[in-house]
Design brief:
About 5% of the residues have low confidence. The radius of gyration is 31 Å and the shape is extended. Helix 6 packs parallel to helix 8 and helix 13 crosses helix 17. About 35% of the residues are buried. The protein has four domains: about 50 residues, no CATH class; about 180 residues, P-loop containing nucleotide triphosphate hydrolases (Rossmann fold), CATH 3.40.50; about 70 residues, Helicase, Ruva Protein, domain 3, CATH 1.10.8; about 160 residues, Up-down Bundle (Methane Monooxygenase Hydroxylase, Chain G, domain 1). It is built from 18 helices and nine strands. Strands 1-3-4-5-2-6 form a six-stranded mixed sheet, sandwiched between helices. It is about 55% helix and about 10% strand. The chain is of the alpha/beta class and about 500 residues long. The longest helix is centred in the first third of the chain and has 27 residues. The protein starts with a helix and ends in a 5-residue tail after the last helix. It binds adenosine-5'-triphosphate (ATP).
Length: about 500
Amino acid sequence: MIMKYKEVIIGIGAGIIGYMAIIGIDILPFIFLIGFSAALYFIAGGQLIKVKNASVGENKKESFISFDDIGGQEVAKKELCEALDFIKCSDKIKALGIRPLKGILLSGSPGTGKTLLAKAAAQYTNSAFFSASGSEFVEMYVGVGAKRVRQLFDQARQSAKKLNKRSAVIFIDEIEVLGGKRGKNHSHQEHDQTLNELLVQMDGISSDEDIKILVIGATNRSDMLDSALMRPGRFDRVVKVDLPDKKGRAHILKLHTRNKPLAQDVDIVSIAKDTFGFSGAQLESVANEAAILAMREDSKVITSVHFKNAIEKVMMGEKLDRLPSSDEKKRIAVHESGHALVGELIFPNSVASVNVASRSNALGYVRNTQEDDMFLYTLDYLKGRISVSLAGAIAEDVILGSRSTGASSDFQHASDLARHIIFAGMSELGIISPEDLPKDKLHEAISSILSDVEESTMELLKKNMDILKRITDELLDKETLTGDELKTLINGKAA
Ligand code: ATP
């Protein structure tokens, strides 16, 4: 309609100016006036667009995610549901004089399903869902962030009303960007005002409102949050969203493969075993990549080989055509064989595969499998892991007589593990206070652990030199060895 009026007015204006020109009136001042007005209108229009964009948050009407669509995270789901029941039974809560639950903080590693949990929470409580990210509030100009927080709460209330819902869930991802400790930020005046506004808005939530608001924040740095935000009455529920364990990984894989044709040989439990440390997002990616690999091969079903390659792709990146020289390839094979042999000797059945095919993140690699998730580590376990890390460089030494730069990240990993031993009070220094330990003492203790383990690893590899050579040759020939092929080689039979 507005468009049509505009066209009619422009048409009439052009007609009048044309007529004035015909009857001999000087139309130049009029044209100048029109040009000037058009420029003013254009600038004002730009401003309008800016104001529109200044609002943050996105109403997700279409997201129907329920708790059944989220794999693993049983503890997080239970805790969240308990908290959400407060919103569902708001009348009972009001009768008992319980203050409403205003905020829930989901804290955990990236890709573990925090956004999914917030969406499922909105679904569970039949609320409108509104999402924004902490970084959307960050602005140089004082007051803009605070204005955006106000807008977000207003928009959530309005859209819940429009959707005929009695409550709204406001999800703020990366809340540490907006809710970090006050006074610590570079542009702290603006930052502090934004956080203060969030606190004010949360304090303003009451049980008498027509639309009940619940703020769900997500962060993977809960240590950075301002203590005022964590005070009871604001985010007084903190739900930990951890990386999934083996059972959780199997559940997530089942969810993400339910719409995919799987071959008979696909065993979800064994894929879950091979994906230790993967987040939900990485598991989703494994399922997707496996389907893409099947499509590339024109296969109608996804096989276990597709899954194996997909795990490697998600973990190590895309396979590259980059070809190292034959000397380099030999060195890489020796290095990886060293890791694999020591790994399998110290931790039987721990190697899933050894590879010398270059991927974007490595020239070669050993992929480990884990029977059970571990929560505590003994001194023997940590020393064993150091030995596996050092074994690559030591194998190069034993077979080729020299080391290369390829081992620097292994050494970093080994020193991190040694540091872990020292800080856990398991080194010769005994129980120590990490802050008071002088740097040179720490360095000495790390070197002592590393050189002890280096010596024992060197002995182990020298004792098993024939097997090491056999694995290297087989690896150069095949590029990839499975855990079973490796075990057969170690046991002395031909693979
Ligand atoms: P970030 O901290 O990086 O924002 P997040 O914890 O919010 O990550 P989500 O955005 O919820 O993670 O998850 C990303 C994707 O990963 C989801 O869309 C889903 O496909 C998959 N995913 C993650 N966790 C799970 C899970 N527990 N069950 C099923 N799928 C999951």
